[in-house]
Every structure is written in C-alpha cells, then in structure tokens.
Design a protein that fits this description.
With about 120 residues, this protein is mainly alpha-helical. The chain has two helices and two strands. It has a two-stranded antiparallel ribbon. The chain binds zinc ion.
Amino acid sequence: MQRQRVPWAWIALVLLLVVAPGPTIRFVGQLIGALGLLLLLLGVLAAIGGLLAWRSFRRRTSVCPSCGALNLGSTVCVVCGHNLAGASNATTPGPVPVDASRATVEVDAQDISDG
Ligand SMILES: [Zn+2]
C-alpha cells in the first residue's frame, strides 16, 4: 500500500500568499497603486494646465466691437483697423445713430412723360 503524500509545503505557501502576501506580491500591489495614483495626478495636472492655457489664451484675445473678428494680441483689429486698446475712443469711426422719426427724406419729383 502506497502512502499518499500531502503537499503541506504547497498548501502552506498558498495560505501564506492569501493571508499574508509576500514581498513580491506586496511590491506588485504597491507598484500598481503608485502607477494609478501617478496617472490620476498626471490627469489632474493636465486638466489644470489646460485650464490655465485656455485662460491665458482668452486673456490675450479680443473681439473687435466693430466687425466681430477675433484678434490675438494686437491693439488694432487686423480686419477693419479698429483700435482695440481704447474701445471707448471717440475717434474711431462708426455708424452714427439717427432718429428715424426726425429724419428728412428729400425727393425731387420729375415729370418723365412727353407731351
Ligand atoms: Zn474689426
């Protein structure tokens, strides 16, 4: 009759890995956690950097009040030449508001019939 050996060594090893993870398992777990945390921090940093870049870009751009063109870092509109530095400057040409009820339309009547 052959005596069957019980693999006590393997059972002990599996129990040790499950109950108290060894240095290798712990190292791999910490590495995965550190990589995840690093990716999370990189994502947050990228979002913050993108927000700051967008705010800087928006600060340097200006919309022309005359023609509506988007100008990047210039004091004069590149499309119509409107002065963007002094938006309330009175020397800039623009349409003069006219009260239509007081406006006078002059019409000269001409007789075009022959006779
Ligand atoms: Zn313009």
